[in-house]
Each structure stands twice: as structure tokens, then as C-alpha cells.
Hints:
Elements: H1 2-34, H2 45-55, H3 69-84, E1 91-92, H4 96-113, H5 117-125, H6 130-150, E2 159-160, H7 163-166, H8 168-182, H9 201-218, H10 222-232, H11 238-255, H12 272-289, H13 293-301, H14 305-323, H15 335-369
Antiparallel strand pairs: 1-2
Helix pairs in contact: 1-9, 1-11, 2-14, 3-8, 3-9, 3-13, 4-12, 4-14, 4-15, 5-6, 5-11, 6-10, 6-12, 9-13, 10-11, 12-15, 13-14
Amino acid sequence: MLNGKIRAMTVSKERKSLIITGLVVGLSAFVLVLLGNPGNMGFCIACFLRDAAGSLGLHSAANVQYMRPEILGLVLGAFVISLLKGEFRPRSGSAPFIRFLLGVGVSIGALVFLGCPLRMVLRLGAGDMNALFGLVGFVAGIGLGCIALSKGFSLGPAKPAGTVEGAGLSILSVILLVILAGAPFLLRFSTEGPGSMRAPVVASLAFGLLVGAAAQRSRMCFAGGFRDLFLIRDTTLITGFIAVFLTSLIANLIGGTFKFGFEGQSVAHTSWLWNTLGMVVVGFGSVLLGGCPLRQLILAGEGNSDSAVTVLGLVVGGAMAHNFNLASSTAGPTTGGKAATIIILVLMALLAVFTCYIARIKEEKEEANA
């Protein structure tokens, strides 16, 4: 009975933390749009990493090039708070190459939809009904991932690593921040399009730090919420998803920026099938990786270099999406993007089946030797 009470108190504390984080994320995103970020894009992990790739010259799409301070702030916010709370734990070695490739695939799927799971929720909160199809696909992809997990899918355990290894992405974030502030001529900046729409650097960095710290404390993960609901009937993590949606919805209604419908939405397209399938890729890949793109940034900040490798995969995927004309536009998905989405889904399914098969063979051998 005592254990049950302790568990209930812990869950209540976690829910409270997730609700606070949802408020912080939703309000921060709303304010960042008011300050200059693209509509319904106060935060978008996939889009912002794509912009960063363009700023570094990894792709040549001139309208999406900017070293987004929000991304740097997310990593550094998680890094600083994990140090202060004694939760900075350097670790690595859990199938880094597979994680890199999955990161590439998730990024491409997100850019076919035109947004990561976080932006999907923000779009819904602003009335963009195209994101509803994205949500359906995201949940379906998570369902596929949960089937894989129930059959024994795993990328293996991470092992303790050196401090510098664990702090690698945080160190890189500091370097990029110094370049942005002191030597911006080394970077590329869009003069038109979404990349040219940006809040002031100080505000972007401040909100990034705030959200990064809050997300680290609450363990917010959009894929994890549905995964836990499906696998263990735990509704704790999904509280964060709901809190971000409701905060965004209320802020947009009060601010007069709520626009219900499908047509004329900011940085969005109306192809329901590819909005759905793009997010199937994101949901499936996020479960296989153990966290959505936002969660990967936070984990990297607190010392997980496997997540840092995943983030690099997201960056490369963003660059590839524009170098090979895979990313959608407001006109809709491209032929290449459609083909890439199907290919990535097939490859993810093959990876899941093969890994589960190997796990089953290993288990049978262990039982035979017992």
C-alpha cells in the first residue's frame, strides 16, 4: 500500500512537471512567432536543423538557411540543467550508425510533412487541419514501432563514455553560437522565405535554453507518450503532448492567430496522404530510436552521444531533402519525396523484422544452453 502511494505521488509529480513544460513550450513557441519566426513554427526541430544545415552550406536552398539559436539553446539548456541536477551521464555505443541512418530517415519524413512532432502539435493548436492527418500518421507509425518493441526490437544498451564524448554536441553548440554572434560571415543567411523569418537572436536563444531545461526535467517526448500508452497503458508522458496543444490553442485563440481549415496555412500543404505517410515515418523511426527529435536533442545535451549521432543524422537528412528535392513545399510533396517516404518505410520495417529475428534466435540459443 505504501509503495502504491509513493508511485501515485511520483506520477503526480511527473504529470505536474509535464504540464508546466507544456505551458512553457506552447507559450514560448507562440511568442517566438510574434517576434518573427514563421507562422506555426515557434519551434520545429526538423525544420530548424535543416535551416542550420543550410547555414553551414550543406545544402543550397537559399530560402531555408539560418543557424537557429533555438536549437543551440535546447541542447545547452538540457546540458546546463543536467549538470546542475547531477544527471549529466556520458554514454554511447548503442548502434550509432543505425541511429544515424534512422535520423536521416526521420528528417526526410518530417520534411515531407513539413514539420516535426512538436510543430505538428503547434499547427493543430493554430487550427491547421492538415496536421490532423499528420497526427494520424504519427500515431500509426508509433503503433508499428510498438509492435517491433513487443517482438524484441532493441538497438542495444549504451555504455559509459568519457566526459568530452558526452559533451560533444554541447561543445559544438557553443562553438556555433560563438560563430553566430562573433563571425556570422562564416555562415549563410536566407534573405527571403522561411529562413529569413526569425525572432531576435537573444530571444530565440533564451527561449531555447528555457525549453531545453524544462524538457530535460520533465522527460517530454511526443513519441514516448503514445508508446507508453500503447505498451503499458501509462498516460503520464502523453500529458505533455496535451499540455502543449491546449496552451497553443488558447494562445492562438486569445492572440487572434487561430485559423481553422486546410487552405492557406503557414508552411503547409494539403496532400492528406503524404502528410499522413510522412509522419508514419517519423513515428516509426522515433520509437525505434527511443525518442522523438526533440527528445534526441535533450538526451544529447545530457550526455548521450548516440542521440548526438542521431541529431547529426537529422541534420544530414535535412540537407539531403533539399539537395535531392525530397522536401515538400506549400505546393505539395515532390515525386522524389513520395518515393523516398515509401523506401524509408520499407527499410525501417526490414530493420525491425531483421533485428527481431536475430533477437529471437539469440533467445532460443540461450534457452537451449540453459
